[in-house]
Write a structure and sequence with these properties.
- By secondary structure, the chain is of the alpha+beta class.
């Protein structure tokens, strides 16, 4: 082949999928790069293309040092050599290193990058002492942030880029080089497509019914068949999901204000105004401000101030270029000095984001909108060497988003969750996500393979829209005893999905502890409106049968009460992720996940392996609830009162539980946990303690279990049983329970007396999973007959 003598070094043009030739930015490459036979790598890959999982590594050249004036050497220094055996190689050095390549298509099976510019043959360049050094290179987080350096024939790229097959099954996805600027025409096309599609992705009624039948395990033997009573109500059972309070569409939000992007005025929103919402990080936004160039209102009550964050100004540009006029930004559209207005608008976040035409998400590393206005994108570098083109691939846009500061913020999680259509701005490109369509600058046309990977990249940040949530319910592989038409079956699936969202949400960051609940209130409201039987106490889900037509007049039937208890103890059975930093939020009770900083998890949440069929809320019974203002109500009345009351929240759970004496616990220092299965009077235990920074124990202590035993033996701490479940593991029967570790209030005056019954105040400090190898037929009865009953006031 003709050796390349010059390089054309430019960014890609927004108007062309392949950069146009330019002579104004031409630089000469060094002699080493000029004589490197890149074609050898491409020929080697083509000769081995029939091996689908073979990365086809090949050595291209033995290199000596780097030329500081060569643009290709500059790419090698920036993208190939860091974190490799030649990482310390300085420009001008004579140290030797090996330039290698592997097949872009054959190994990156879980990456969208392998589909770029198909079907052109493409070689990923890397530096390695050995050929197998390609493996750590592929798995490098640094590469995921910067992208790959790739070599391909120029003619192949020109034939491949921009000529994909779109949505045709089996066809190549349309891909292209990313422009240096944001392209409003492309965004408008995405918006038009999703407006036309609507909620067409919903499954047919027959498909959902068949899926339900496949997953039902069978009713509990001693429970009534609620469906029989419900059938007496005519067609209501068939349309169960439709007769409940449905998901709202676009709704009027009382008291809402928006920014007029033409006049910069802050105006009251009328019902006919379509608007766009902005999701961003305020701390990052304040680091880059711009002047609007006119006199502004100093307190921005009715008009934007003269100086505003650049992200807000650029968002206004995106709004007008997308064909809209109004923008909602919380900092300006909610009077932050008015606590009443703040509380009112915060409670309506589901309506605000759910009713927006789309939401702009500032998910770049600097919190701006790269490619808009004066905010530059990180360019995709392209070097044309005559018959060859060497270029960088944009890092996976979804990974860039999940690595951003925006992704770590609690409020931002809910804002994205509630938005039907989201336009993410990352450092290198933009991503559009909506029901039925996922596209980005690299892949501008929806394609099944790309869409699946983009959608799967956000399992922790899904959309909570009408169509998407309904599909999640129907497709959830949650084991259950009842169909989705049964209120218990629907709630069980919702519970698993809800707890999964909370697990992600609790890993986010907040500036103010009080926002622990507020930042998730909109999502909770969505679920409450979707299912009239779904409610929450301080963020903890609870089953509240309210659809009387479905359960007849037997509101307090024993089966429903037992299911309610079972679901509630599952909700209470959370712990924190191992090695997580944990501390208390005193504004909330200790029994709710909101009362702690740290990532919560539910080992026993409903899912593919947990149906709840063998789960019993053994002895754990909440009798009454006391509120933050002292209101004390029986459990049944408390559920209705505290789940609907805006002025008072639940604080104390008053009830009874089985207490496990410390003498019946086998600590690990006494033997392996499995040893307990040979001792009928002992329980093996695994601790999940929520150690606080000012707590009495050091979680890293070598004598941790000895210290726990000492506190339990002293009576300062107690171990109360939440639930009991019998299982069969490795052909062996065993009992398994979930327990709370509580700290008793030592002030006897803190006991609460209700109808001559005393409840001792305590607070949760941890949880434990316990096992027992007793006979299944007598274990439950043995627990209730043998162990003491404890009256608690859990706060």
């Amino acid at each position: 082949m003709d050796k390349p003598t010059a390089v054309e070094h430019q960014r890609s043009s927004p108007q062309s999928p392949v950069p146009t030739e330019s002579t104004s930015d031409t630089a000469t490459i060094c002699q080493q790069c000029r004589t490197t036979n890149f074609e050898h790598a491409l020929n080697h890959i083509e000769a081995n293309r029939e091996e689908p999982l073979d990365p086809c590594p090949v050595t291209i050249a033995e290199r000596t040092g780097l030329d500081a004036a060569c643009p290709l050497c500059g790419l090698f220094a920036r993208l190939l050599l860091p974190n490799t055996y030649a990482s310390s190689l300085p420009p001008g050095s004579q140290e030797r290193w090996r330039l290698r390549a592997f097949n872009l298509r054959n190994w990156l099976l879980e990456s969208k990058t392998r589909m770029l510019y198909s079907p052109a043959t493409a070689a990923v360049l890397y530096a390695g002492e050995r050929e197998r050094d390609w493996l750590p290179y592929v798995n490098s987080e640094e590469v995921e942030r910067t992208g790959f350096l790739v070599c391909a024939r120029t003619r192949d790229l020109e034939a491949a880029v921009g000529s994909g097959a779109g949505e045709e099954e089996g066809g190549y996805p349309l891909s292209r080089f990313v422009g240096a600027e944001y392209e409003p025409e492309m965004v408008r096309s995405w918006l038009n497509l999703t407006e036309a599609k609507g909620d067409s992705a919903e499954q047919s009624e027959s498909e959902s019914e068949s899926e339900d039948e496949d997953e039902i395990e069978g009713e509990e033997e001693d429970e009534d068949d609620i469906l029989e009573a419900a059938h007496k109500c005519g067609d209501e059972i068939e349309n169960y999901e439709r007769v409940q309070r449905p998901f709202h569409g676009v709704q009027v939000v009382t008291g809402m204000k928006v920014i007029d992007c033409e006049t910069h005025m802050i105006v009251s929103k009328s019902p006919d105004m379509q608007y766009v919402a902005l999701s961003y990080v305020w701390a990052l936004a304040l680091q880059d401000t711009v002047e609007l160039g006119r006199e502004g209102e100093p307190e921005y009550k009715t008009r934007l101030p003269r100086s505003i964050p650049r992200v807000v100004r650029d968002a206004m540009t995106v709004v007008t270029q997308s064909g809209y006029r109004y923008l909602w930004v919380d900092a300006y559209c909610i009077d932050q000095s008015n606590p009443t207005e703040v509380a009112d608008q915060v409670s309506k976040m589901d309506l605000i984001y759910g009713s927006a035409a789309f939401t702009i998400v500032a998910a770049s590393s600097r919190g701006n909108l790269p490619g808009v206005g004066g905010s530059p994108r990180t360019p995709q570098t392209i070097l044309k060497l005559g018959p060859l083109t060497i270029f960088t691939t944009p890092p996976p846009v979804d990974r860039k988003i999940t690595a951003s500061t925006w992704f770590t913020r609690g409020w931002c999680f809910q804002e994205s969750l509630l938005s039907p259509r989201r336009l993410y701005f990352a450092d290198h490109e933009a991503l559009f996500a909506a029901d039925g369509l996922h596209a980005c600058d690299s892949f501008p046309v929806h394609h099944p393979e790309v869409a699946v990977q983009l959608d799967d990249s956000f399992p922790e940040n899904p959309s909570l829209t009408p169509a998407s949530w309904d599909r999640r319910l129907r497709r959830a592989r949650t084991k259950r005893q009842h169909s989705l038409a049964d209120p218990r079956g629907r709630f069980w699936v919702e519970l698993g999905l809800f707890l999964g969202l909370v697990e992600v949400y609790t890993g986010k960051q907040f500036t103010m502890s009080s926002d622990s609940i507020n930042g998730f209130r909109g999502a909770m409201r969505i679920l409450v409106e979707a299912d009239a039987n779904f409610a929450t106490l301080q963020g903890v889900p609870v089953f509240v049968p309210r659809v009387r037509s479905l359960i007849g007049t037997d509101y307090g039937s024993e089966p429903l009460r037992r299911f309610q208890k079972k679901a509630f103890v599952v909700s209470l059975g959370w712990c924190h992720k191992k090695d997580d930093t944990v501390s208390r939020r005193e504004e909330f009770p200790s029994w709710t996940w909101a009362g702690w900083r740290g990532s919560a998890r539910w080992d026993g949440k409903p899912g593919p392996a947990v149906s709840g069929a063998r789960l019993q809320p053994l002895g754990f019974d909440v009798i009454a609830v006391q509120g933050t203002r002292g209101t004390l109500l029986p459990w049944a009345k408390a559920l209705s009162f505290f789940t609907d009351c805006l002025d008072e929240d639940a604080r104390l759970l008053l009830g009874e539980a089985v207490g496990i004496p410390v003498g019946n616990v086998l600590f690990r220092r006494q033997g392996k946990p499995t040893d307990a299965l040979r001792q009928d009077d002992k329980w093996a235990v695994r601790w999940d303690m929520d150690f606080t920074t000012d707590g009495p124990l050091d979680p890293a202590s070598q004598n941790l279990e000895l210290e726990i035993e000492r506190f339990l033996a002293s009576g300062q701490w107690g171990l109360i049983l939440l639930s009991y479940e019998y299982t069969v593991r490795m052909g062996r029967k065993e009992d398994r329970g979930s327990a709370l570790v509580v700290c008793w209030d030592r002030d006897e005056r803190e006991q609460i007396v209700v109808e001559e019954r005393e409840f001792r105040k305590c607070y949760r400090i941890g949880s434990a999973t316990i096992w027992r190898g007793n006979d299944l037929g007598s274990a439950a009865k043995d627990i209730l007959d043998t162990y003491p009953r404890i009256s608690f006031g859990l706060g």
